[in-house]
Amino acid sequence: MHERFETTVANDLTAIPGLMDAVDDYLKHSEVSTRVGTAVKVVVEESLSNIIRHGFEGEQRHDIRVGLGVDPSEIAIRLEDDGKPFNPLTVPRQATSQPPEERVEAGLGMHLVRNMTRAMSYRWQDGKNVFEIWIKR
Known about the structure:
CATH class: Alpha Beta
Number of strands: 5
Strand content: 25-35%
Strand order of the largest sheet: 1-2-3-5-4
Oligomer: single chain
Largest sheet: 5 strands, antiparallel
Order of helices and strands: EHHEEHEE
Distance between the termini: 13 Å
Number of domains: 1
Helix content: 25-40%
Radius of gyration: 15 Å
């Protein structure tokens, strides 16, 4: 496994572009293909924006830990926050049989995340949401 990427960002949507640049640099340094790198970036950005938009009440600053690890067969992503307990795996699946204009907008990001990953897990641990995602290389 290559050296892990670890950082902490504030619960502020303006923090996402800088984080995404750092993730992109890490993936390039780890020789991850463009196709897989794009999937990783979409998953991180969607998951992080959901945490920021829905995980906290009020204007207080919170830290969100973001970790990535690359090995020969997959990329592991870990997001950890002290927001409201929320299991993203409980977001209902999108009814793909319906035309796009009739689908519910809520949960669309999670639909993308589900379709780009090999596996996901969630747990509430020590007062924190821990969301882990694996993407096949």
